[in-house]
Amino acid sequence: MISHRRLLAGLTSVLPLLFSPLVSAADTHSYAEPGKVLVTALDLDLNVAMDKHVLSGHADLSLDWKDKSAHELVLDTRDLSIEQVDLLDAKNKASSLEFELSAADPILGSALHIAMPKQGAKVRITYHTSPNASGLQWLDALQTAGKKHPFLFSQSEAIHARSWVPLQDSPAVRFTYTAHIRTPKELRAAMSADNDINHALDGDFKFSMPQRIPSYLMALSVGDMAVEATGPRSAIFADPGVVKAAVTEFSDTEKMIATAEKLFGAYRWGRYDILVLPPSFPFGGMENPRLTFATPTVLAGDKSLVSLVAHELAHSWSGNLVTNASWDHIWLNEGFTTYVQGRIVEAIYGRDQDLMEFQLSTDALRRSFADDPKLDQHLVPDLKGLDPDDGLSDVPYTKGDWFLRFLEARFGREVFDPFIRGYFDHFAFQSITTPQFVDYLKANLLDKNPGKVSMDEVNEWLQGVGIPKTAPDLQAPRFKIVAANRDKWLAGTLDAKALNGKKYSTQEWEYFLDSLPPKLTLAQMQQLDAAYDLTHTGNAPIGFRWYLHAVRSNYTAAYTAMQAHMIRIGRRILIVPLYVELAKTPDGLALARKIYAEAKPGYHPLTRASVEKALSDTKR
Ligand code: BES
Ligand code: ZN
Questions:
Q1: Where would one find the signal peptide in this protein (predicted)?
Q2: Does the C-beta of 284 come closer than 6 Å to ligand 1?
Q3: Worst-scoring range by mean pLDDT, 14-23, 456-465, 501-510?
């Protein structure tokens, strides 16, 4: 291997970046230089060693040279062992290339510099992953529902694809891919690609994703999965013991696809399947194209949490079709998606359901603006130098959704719906930034419908802090009834049983628990528990909120169940706030440390990082 400095000295006369029209803004979270040379296709060939926790094989990258004087390909990697880099000629004959892996940056990983004296069309990188790859979780058999077979899943968003594939890990770069995945014979492989639901278990899986996608949508899972249809173009992949419950819970999937198509144009990805992961999955869901990854904690038994499917499905338009060009602009993915999610929920489950979910989000945003002085309230933050995982908050989701609901209210759906649909068509398969959205908004909505919304009003949303004064005040009527009863119960004039909680939906419980005073008396906690046994609820978001009260009110009767919740579940938003709350007192911190020691082996690398931050951040 040659030294990095020597390699660069031999290569560079530094030229200004010539951005292709595809690449419209700098992405500070990637070392890649897509303005010089663009990766247009990836062919992966990987062996999956479930026992060693290693992926090994090669990645072939097809290159489109934009800058005729460039002689270097720079890729993103993290903890990858690069064995060899070859130039492939038209007949796939290999000749070796010199390369250098730069020192690892804690957030960005290591740039892989490949010297290409001749601007070749294809390179092959032979490599293997680290057992600690940040984008992979390897589970032992005992950590799965079936307990018989090990399990693997990836989570690439935001910048973790680079920990399992060397590539230009920027959402501004889009490419097609194929993959050849070898697994142990008894297991199934599934990817964000064309999954064959009838594929034989022969240890040999081939995939193709013919539409251009950004790297954060690269996804792979391997394990014991049963497959069962929920509709003509949708199925559930899940542990054989979980699949039936998931099929029942998600039986409205086809209705959701059809609803979204009617509103916003054809679903362009062929099938829409859902993989229900083990409970350690660190997120609620991930919109991997053609195969959403989902937490089992939404299997409430009553469809009350299926807006998660509406959300991940909505990304098939906002995110996967029209993509944020860098993580600063993530509201273009998440804000639009939350808006579309709401429209799907309203169409299928009614306006009350949508309003309840929206109010839960806006109430939470108001609370975090009031309580968290460190939170960046801008819709488009500057994440330079920050880990995009840490920069993630409710703001792009809820403020983004709220902004679009504001536009909808001002222009009316008869104008706004065709505008959104036109936006998805206009920018389909492109990665864009907020200024590009604003130009489109101005030309196609504001200027064509004068007098409805001013640019000053738009800019208050896009550039201001806090909640803009033009934010529509959308309240859920059903919460008013819950609030009235809650106040009577708190005043001691209504018995806990008379709250009528047995009839509450998940969202009414969430509202009730979110809106109680931070500290309740022991007697109040006991009354609620006696009436509704919240300590042993099977509903994870309700349990999470109850356990927060248990910690704040020192209601130790709930601690055994809370501990089981924190060990079983790895979904960050349902456990990290409990660690934060526990860490506020010395006894609580000791308990948190004890729980974490037991839970850690089952947690995803991202969950571990968040919990460790929560346990070290404490100032007492
Ligand atoms: N794409 C996100 C998950 C994500 C965002 C992962 C940023 C990494 C970085 C996904 O679509 C999402 O928003 N999931 C939510 C669920 C949703 C119903 C709000 C989640 O996991 O909480
Ligand atoms: Zn999302």
A1: 1-25
A2: yes
A3: 14-23
